[in-house]
Design goal:
Strand order of the largest sheet: 4-5-6-7
Radius of gyration: 22 Å
Helix content: 40-55%
Number of domains: 3
CATH class of the largest domain: Mainly Alpha
Distance between the termini: 72 Å
CATH superfamily of the largest domain: Leucine-rich Repeat Variant
Length: 326
């Protein structure tokens, strides 16, 4: 009797769990997910660096595919971490950072333990901002301390960015009191860390009425965008609006003279720097990537890539990476 009912029980579990128990058989993946994984695997096999670029001012197709697939992409990317081609390994590391979470972190940690590859270490540190366990914070602090001898500067910078995202109370306290980890931290990181604590603002009033993308951008202003402490006004040419910091709040408005957003002659006279955003929200509406550029002049700009997740109905920054400089 029990044997006869097994197919029925399996069918019921299949329906009630949304196929999650059968993902290892490939039954838990929708046709769209399977098609996305095949497309990702094809891009990896072809290995075109232009196609595999995930960071920059524009959000490319590879980054969008990875964000839409989420954790479904981890097995393919985990395999790509050991590809003989450096471009493929770098892409896999970057993509796992975009996905974030424990599975992505563990794949990078396993690869770093086996290969000791610096690029993998960099993205392992960046990915730990999305998990933030006590063990992650300890690892990040050790990596930051290891960068004091200049041999691991890039990994140390990545560890620093993740600590800025996490803002661990104990680390902040030890830095301020110059005790424990704070006493061992290089003076340059200590100064930058304390400076980063002053970035951000109170809850923007426009958050309640803003559209989906603007809610994300306002979240980043609340979190703190590097470079925005250098000016109280930024022009956003793409949406023809001005961002202003006043009364501890960032808000946006449109200038009556629209030429100010497009005429370099006027803007140079007007003097405020520019800020630009490229935003992509995944198909589930729970994960986002934002490329931010802060530009103070022709050869004075920098860019950051932020990953965000929807947690309890609110967007939260869970990762930050340095993407470009001019």
């Amino acid at each position: 009797m029990i044997k006869k009912n097994i197919p029925l029980i399996i069918a019921m579990l299949f329906l009630l769990t949304g196929c999650s128990y059968f993902s290892f058989l490939g039954l838990g993946q929708s046709l769209e997910t399977k098609a996305g994984i095949k497309m990702l695997e094809k891009m990896v096999q072809q290995g075109d660096p232009k196609e595999l670029n995930t960071f920059g001012r524009d959000i490319g197709p590879a980054a969008k595919i990875v964000l839409d697939l989420g954790e479904s992409a981890v097995p393919a990317l985990k395999k790509a971490l050991y590809d003989p081609k450096e471009d493929i390994r770098n892409f896999a590391s970057e993509a796992l950072f975009l996905i974030g979470g424990e599975k992505a972190r563990d794949a990078l940690k396993e690869a770093h333990d086996k290969t000791k590859n610096e690029s993998v270490l960099i993205y392992l540190c960046l990915t730990m901002a999305s998990t933030g366990t006590p063990e992650d914070v300890y690892f990040l602090m050790k990596t930051l301390e290891a960068g004091n001898d200049k041999t691991n500067d890039r990994a140390a910078a990545s560890a620093f960015l993740s600590l800025v995202v996490l803002k661990p109370d104990r680390i902040i306290r030890e830095i301020k009191l110059n005790l424990g980890s704070g006493a061992r931290m290089d003076s340059k990181w200590k100064a930058l860390f304390l400076l980063s604590m002053d970035l951000g603002c109170q809850e923007p009033q426009q958050m309640t009425t803003a559209g989906p993308e603007d809610k994300i951008i306002l979240t980043l202003f609340k979190f703190g965008i590097p470079g925005t402490d250098q000016s109280t006004v930024f022009l956003e040419a793409g949406k023809e609006r001005t961002w202003k910091f006043e009364n501890k709040l960032w808000s946006f408005f449109q200038d009556d003279n629209l030429e100010v957003y497009h005429s370099k002659e006027i803007s140079y006279r007007y003097k405020p720097p520019y800020i630009e955003f490229e935003t992509y929200i995944d198909k589930t509406g729970t994960r986002a990537l934002v490329n931010v550029g802060v530009i103070f002049g022709k050869d004075a700009g920098s860019g950051y890539s932020f990953t965000l997740k929807m947690i309890k109905g609110e967007w939260k920054a869970v990762g930050m990476a340095f993407s470009w400089i001019s």
